[in-house]
Design brief:
single chain, 62 residues, alpha+beta, two-stranded antiparallel sheet, 2 strands, 19% helix
């Protein structure tokens, strides 16, 4: 039996069957598409730390 035939048989045997109250959906695995680079950090260069005024207005110079 060819691996393509056995794959198709396995998909047909399991697809649509119920498991723990839910219907299974079985598809042939395909290579993942290249969707481009990562999104990066939305804060860009800001690390989220304290600002130059030492936080909540303390130690300000007037």
């Amino acid at each position: 039996m060819d691996s393509t035939d056995s794959m198709g048989s396995a998909i047909e045997a399991v697809n649509g069957k119920e498991f723990q109250g839910r219907a299974l959906v079985v598809n042939e695995a395909k290579p993942q598409e290249n969707r481009g680079g990562g999104g990066g950090n939305y804060r860009s260069n800001n690390s989220g730390g304290r600002r130059g005024d030492n936080g909540y207005g303390r130690n300000r110079r007037y």
